[in-house]
Amino acid sequence: MNKKERELFQRQRLEEMKQFEKEICGEEAACIAGVDEAGRGPLAGPVVAAAVVLPRDFDVPGIDDSKKLTEKRREAMYPIIKETALAWGIGIVDHEKIDEINILQAAREAMRQAVSEASRKLAAKGMKLDHILFDAMTIEDISIPQTNVIKGDSKSLSIAAASILAKVTRDRMMVEFAAQYPGYGFEKNKGYGTKAHYEGLRTRGVCPIHRKTFLKNL
Predict the structure, then answer these.
(1) CATH code for residues 3-170
(2) Which of 4, 105, 149, 178 shows the greatest Cβ crowding within 10 Å of its Cβ?
């Protein structure tokens, strides 16, 4: 599509995702946190979650499920989201904790951290969370009203924004790890099980940030 068609599409997506949140949370919910994670599937590195609370009048087209965006687009949207959000939070659970409690519980813990940080930032402004939208997840020990949204990163604007923050944060961490632990291709595969990654495991063995519970069959 040409530039004009792309801009029209992005504007339509923005309005669709904003409308979805209004229908789920109601018009009275002023502070809605979208929460998503990145890194449940890789063989190495942390799982990272983000929580994002956007203002109701947010009007910047271009946010979508991070998996649908190019790396360049994610990097461009990353500072915009941080600068325009009412609040945001990041949660990180490392490979050791993942091995200890399993990846599902680690993802939930990262989400709790992210929600907690976003809540603190809102409180500092005299505001509080009205509703949380989780991408395909439920966290029982959070008392704030919440909704589990299947494929939420492609339906909810706030979850999509959170998916971008989580993805970019984790990708940057994996690029840094690539310099510390060369030979696995972390700068490209971000810890996922690519051919280059498996070749690195075969020739170099397990490095300090590998998830050992993910490598039992190797």
Answers:
(1) 3.30.420.10
(2) 149
